[in-house]
Write a structure and sequence with these properties.
This protein has four helices and five strands. It is of the alpha+beta class. It has a domain of 111 residues: Alpha-Beta Plaits (2-Layer Sandwich), CATH 3.30.70.1440. It holds the Pfam family EACC1.
Length: 160
């Protein structure tokens, strides 16, 4: 039996925004249980001050989310590819694609909206990567575009 899903998004009042939200909401039931590929995302944070503390704050928020219980979330510290540059702090997140991916992006966007300006979150899935900031996190179309760009969901709404 499917549980009701509640979705909260910030919208500007326009027909286009409501159509985007309708597309996003129509994806939610179709995503659960249909696609069982394993997805391995990395998340890195760029912040003017204390990116490590911001990453830890994000990790704690994600670990507290019921929708992400099935996801494996680990912190890693290391050098960038090639061994040159600043030490990178990264979250590694593994999950079966679909609803968990949607919940993950919603969780990161919600966390980002609550943080001070100037924080950028970089999502990577293999050779694909997308960067978002506090402005992007307020755009419902960005949620769908991010999921599609990272190959966490297929392009366009699926059948209901």
């Amino acid at each position: 039996m499917d549980r009701p899903i509640s979705t909260t998004v910030h919208v500007e009042h326009s027909a286009k925004s409501f159509a985007i939200i309708d597309d996003f909401i129509s994806l939610r039931p179709a995503l659960r249980g249909r696609d069982t590929r394993q997805v391995h995302l990395t998340i890195q944070i760029a912040a003017e001050e204390s990116p490590g503390l911001e990453l830890d704050s994000l990790k704690q928020d994600l670990l507290a989310a019921d929708e992400l219980r099935s996801a494996a979330i680990e912190s890693r510290t290391g050098l960038p590819t090639g061994g040159m540059g600043p030490i990178l702090e990264t979250l590694l997140i593994s999950f079966a694609s679909g609803g968990v991916g949607v919940a993950l992006v919603e969780g990161v966007f919600g966390w980002l909206r609550s943080r001070p300006a100037g924080i950028t979150v970089k999502f990577s899935n293999g050779d694909r990567s997308v960067e978002v900031d506090d402005r992007t996190a307020r755009d419902p179309a960005a949620v769908i575009a991010l999921l599609q760009a990272l190959d966490v969901i297929e392009s366009g709404p699926r059948g209901k």
